[in-house]
C-alpha cells in the first residue's frame, strides 16, 4: 500500500474518535503487516472503526493482549488491527447476583483482583494478561474447564460489532434471562472471523476457602487413564483433573484439584488418595507442571513461540487410553519428541513438539494422529468420528504441510454463517477453517 493510501485510511479511521497510529513491526499478524492500528475506547468508537473500515473495503483483525494473534493461518490480508485492549472498564458488578459485565479489553488478572474483594471469581484460569474478549474469541480455558466449562458456558450476555459497524446484543444481565438467539455461543471460538466482541456479561462463582491437589504417578497409560476417569466421575466433585507426561513412554502424572471449605477439602482429599492410590501425595499448592502445556497456559505459550508446535487433541474422555497410546505410536513412527499435558478428565490434551524438529516429520505426526483418532476426511471434507486434532501454532512449513484445522464436518454451515455475518469477508479473512 502506498504512503498516501495508508494516510487516507488513518484519516478516515481517526474521524471515529479512536486512537489511530501507523503499524509497526510488532503489529505483524502471522507475517502480514497491517496499514494501521485503531484503538477504540468505547463501543461507539469501535462501531465507527468497523463502519469506516467497511466503507473502504479494509480487512480487520481484532487484537486483545496479542499473545496468540499470530497462531494458526496468517490472514489473507490485514489492513487494520482493531486493538481492544483500551476497552478495559468493568461496567457493572452485581455481587449479590454473581454477575459481572465488562468491556472486552479487561484483563483476567485485573478482573480477578476486583472480584476477589467480594470473595468471588470468574472461573477462567487463563494467564492474567489475557483479555476477556480474547478468551471468549478463542473459547480457551485451563484446568478449571472440567467443573466450570469453557468461556461460552460462563457467558450470559454479549455485545458485538458487526463488520458493517452495526451493534448486536444477546443474553441479559442475570443468569436466568438468556432467552433469544445465542450470539454468545456463536462468537465463542469464532477467533475474530465474524465481528468484534466489545462487551461481555458472565456468571461468577465463590472463591474457595481452600484448594488441595492430590497427585499420583503411573507407569502405564492404562492405569493413568483409569485413575483420571475414576477421579473425574467421582462424587468428590473435583474442579480439575490434569495429566502430564514429559516424554513418550515416560511416567504419567495425574493431579486432581479439590476446592471448598478446609474441613471438606481435607476429607475429600483423603478419599481421593484412596481412589488414586495410597501413595498419592496431597499438596496445598499446584505442582509446577499444572496447566503448563495448553492454549490457556502462559508458560505453554512462552515455550511454543520460539518455533515449536502446539497441537490440541479433543476426544471423548472415555477414549483417553487409546489417545495416549496413539500419541506414543505415532510419535515413534514419525520420529518426533512429544510432551503431553492437559485436562484429561475433560477430554482435552495438548501435544507440544519443541522447536528444532524437522517440519516434515512434525506434519507426518499431525496427519497420522488425525487418522489414528478418527479425525479423517470424509466425502465432503468431514468424517470426524471420535476426536479432533487442531494445530494451534506451528512454523509455517508445518502449517503448509498439515492444515491446522484438518477436516471439519460442519464446514458448509460455518461458511454459511460467515456469509451471513461477514459477506465482504473483511474480518480476519482466511484464518478460519477452510480459509473462511
Describe what you observe in this structure:
There is one protein chain. The chain has 4 domains: 3-85, Uridine Diphospho-n-acetylenolpyruvylglucosamine Reductase, domain 2 (2-Layer Sandwich); 90-206, Uridine Diphospho-n-acetylenolpyruvylglucosamine Reductase, domain 3; 210-283, Transcriptional regulatory protein pf0864 domain like (Alpha-Beta Plaits, 2-Layer Sandwich), CATH 3.30.70.1380; 298-413, 2-Layer Sandwich (Alpha-Beta Plaits), CATH 3.30.70. The chain has 14 helices and 19 strands. Helix 11 (320-334) runs antiparallel to helix 12. The chain is α+β, with helices and mostly antiparallel strands and 436 residues long. It has helices at 3-14, 43-55, 108-116, 132-138, 145-148, 151-154, 183-187, 221-233, 262-276, 298-304, 320-334, 359-372, 396-401, 411-421; strands at 19-22, 36-39, 60-63, 80-83, 90-94, 99-103, 120-121, 155-161, 167-171, 196-203, 205-206, 210-218, 240-245, 252-260, 281-283, 309-315, 339-342, 348-353, 387-393. Mean pLDDT is 91; it is low at 175-180 and 378-385. A hairpin with a 4-residue loop joins strand 5 and strand 6 (99-103). It is 31% helix and 23% strand. The protein has an 8-stranded antiparallel beta sheet. Strands 5-6-10-8-9 form a 5-stranded antiparallel beta sheet.
Beta strand %: 15-25%
Task: Determine the fraction of residues in helical runs and give it as a percent range.
Answer: 25-40%
Please count the helical segments: 14
* Oligomeric state: single chain
Query: What low-confidence regions span 5 or more consecutive residues with pLDDT below 50?
Result: 175-180, 378-385
* Total DSSP E strands: 19
Main β-sheet, spatial strand arrangement: 15-12-14-13-17-18-16-19
Rg from alpha-carbon coordinates:
22 Å
Q: Helices and strands: which structural class?
A: alpha+beta
